[in-house]
Amino acid sequence: MDVVLDNLALFLHGLALTLVVSMSASLGGSAVGLVAALARMARAAPLRWLATGYVELIRNTPGLVQLFLVYLGLPRLGIRFSPLGALVTALTINNGAYIAEIVRGGLQAVPRGQLDAAASIGLSRRFTLREVVLPQTLHAIHPALANQFIQTVLASSVGTVVGVEELTQVALFVESRTYRTVEILAALTLVYVAVTFLLAVLLRRLGQRLDRGYR
Amino acid sequence: MTEPGGRADTVVSLEGVTKFFGALKVLDDVSLAVGRRERLVLIGPSGSGKSTLLRCVNGLEEVSGGRVVVDGMVVGDPATPMARVRAEVGMVFQHFNLFPHKTVLENLTLGPIRVLGLSRVEAESLARDLLSRVGVPEKAAEYPARLSGGQQQRVAIARALAMRPKVMLFDEPTSSLDPELVGEVLDVMRRLADEGMTMMVVTHEMAFAEDVADRVIVLDHGAVVEEGPPQRIFSNPGTPRARAFLTRLLARSERHRRERS
Amino acid sequence: MDWVIIRDNAALLLGGTVTTIELALAAFLGGTAIGLATAFARLIAGRDAELGLKAAVDVVRGSPLLVQLLLVYLGLSAIGLPLDPVPAAVVGLSINAGAYLSEIFRGGMAAVPRGQTEAGLAIGLPRLYVLGSIVLPQALPVVVPAMIGLFIGLLKDTSLAYVLGLLELTRMGKNVMDRTLQPFEILIAVAVIYFVLCFPLSQLVRVVDARMRRSGLAQARL
């Protein structure tokens, strides 16, 4: 464990980058996912197909391949990313598809009676979506969103393959210098476990705060 | 657009209304008129189209044939925005349908602020007044989940009243309530009727119908089979099917009433 | 865009695909064995074992698969028990799948009403038998769709064996594109192959799920 402490600054940097990457990808992914979920309910069929195609393509291919496509494939089309940019972009796109499914499930869980009540008061469709449907959707899906965030933190480790200096890459770097393989990898595992555990507790508390009175 | 030649005191009028769900005919050439201050009760076996009829009045369902006229406006007419029609029609649902993520007060003020253009101060004052009228003024800051079923339904009635409608529709308002909570809701409805609100009520509560209704309409398979004052309908129904239905209904209603007392 | 390059390297890509499928199947079998054993052990064994197993499951589920694969491959080799990439990948993937499967089994069995277990025990049947023959079968409508879902995940997760140098589909694709300098076309081909493997299975999940809900076999409250 002293090997970790000796290189504490490096590890903290790696952890910070992991968290920053995960948060960016989660926020970006939430925006993308929300748009995609709404697009899947659109009246225009091409919009629905586009959104569904996006979701199914992402969910049925590995994240590593998606990362390679962004980092190595897109330059062929003239779009170049730094390793970090590629990681965040790929994770955002990946997240978006899974969040789209989560949001879709939540939207369908809102009882039909809510729409009836809002309509009978005379509220417009757009207002009803914003003020009646989406808040209730959020109440239904926030546990799944929390889980998705934690999965993103774990998934960010693929960044090591393209050289992003997130937590796993830092650990491997230290390992290559010190050859204390088992210690470092075991410590790395435990750091992830501790981080995801703390995040789970924090997010659960936030969720309870959100649900106060609601249930 | 005002209906030319319509009676000035007819609030709701259904003219030859037919409704299909796919191949299923749910409403069959229904015609009826509801006058100002009139209390109409609709009864009939399940599947007879009572709820669908109500939902056609405020446009939650679109009619397949015929037309519905509310306060001179033709429902579904492109010239008349649905929001204007719905502002005149208040609806109370079997499952209350309060917005669970908003407080009781917010449930009531949402419509008046957003659709009627009241200021927040005016809307809240109106809301508190209505909550007093339905008997739950102390619950204003609570979320619906903390209220009993009867309290929730009374709030739902207040929410519909907050839009100052010309007619109130009740779709089996007490069917989801525990027996001991039914009375408090019926009391509110009774008081509303006494104050002169025009009402269309779908219910199985026969005592209420007998006390409050000016007219009872019996629906079966989407068609009006009986129409008249409650005293006559309940004591002397015309068709055998209506008679059989009413006998069962009266027995059940009597049982419920005994459970509540 | 040079799409012919895909046809020229089709044999290699297909070889990688076969490896991917074999890896996924092996890990699925290994993971099912581990998952069942863990789930049963947690329900039957004493408190200490339960806590220990729960901790183990939580550690595996709370850390990245990539790190676990490296730990198995590099770690075992560092302590003098070197494994080739393929067995190392199978072990790592099996343990990871096993942790998630144990939760699937546990959750499915927990959804079966307690009365079933109690009735079985009241007749005098041994605990393990009750779990295996009475509870688990009734948990199937919940468990089977989840297991198929997990297998789909495994097909995708095998791509992480890339870091062990193993010639599964992703690594094979990388080799080809490094050689032919056509990353975009090859990656598209690789993505399409994964999609062709996974998408039908994901549709199968929906069908199986609906079929099993209707079957009435489910006493489990879903």
Keywords for this structure?
heterotrimer; B: 261 residues; alpha/beta; 6-stranded mixed sheet; 4-stranded antiparallel sheet; C: 222 residues; mainly alpha; disordered C terminus
User: What kind of sheet is the major sheet of chain B?
Assistant: 6 strands, mixed
Structural class of chain C: mainly alpha
What is the count of β-strands of chain B? 10
Shape, per Cα inertia axes of chain C: flat
What is the CA-CA span between the terminal residues of chain B? 49 Å
User: Gyration radius of chain C, to the nearest Å?
Assistant: 21 Å
Strand order of the largest sheet of chain B: 6-7-8-3-9-10
Please state the oligomeric state of the protein chains shown: heterotrimer
Morphology of chain B: globular
N-to-C series of helices and strands of chain B: EEEHEEHEHHHEHEHEEHH
Mind explaining what this structure looks like?
The complex is a heterotrimer of chains A (215), B (261) and C (222). In chain A, 43% of the residues are buried. The mean pLDDT of chain A is 93. Chain A has 215 residues and is mainly α. In chain A, helix 4 crosses helix 5, helix 5 (83-109) packs across helix 7 (125-155) and helix 7 runs antiparallel to helix 9 (181-210). The longest helix of chain A is centred in the first third of the chain and has 32 residues, at 8-39. Chain A contains 9 helices and no strands. Chain A has a single domain, classed as MetI-like (MetI-like fold, Orthogonal Bundle), CATH 1.10.3720.10. Chain B is globular. In chain B, the strands form 2 sheets. Chain B has a 6-stranded mixed beta sheet with strand order 6-7-8-3-9-10, sandwiched between helices. Chain B contains 9 helices and 10 strands. By secondary structure, chain C is an all-alpha fold. Chain C contains 9 helices and no strands. Chain C has helices spanning 4-8, 10-44, 47-61, 65-78, 85-110, 114-123, 127-157, 169-180, 183-214. Mean pLDDT of chain C is 91; it is low at 218-222. The chains are: A mainly alpha (215), B alpha/beta (261), C mainly alpha (222). Chains in contact: A-B, A-C. Chains A and C meet through helix 3, helix 4, helix 8 and helix 9 of A and helix 4, helix 7, helix 8 and helix 9 of C.
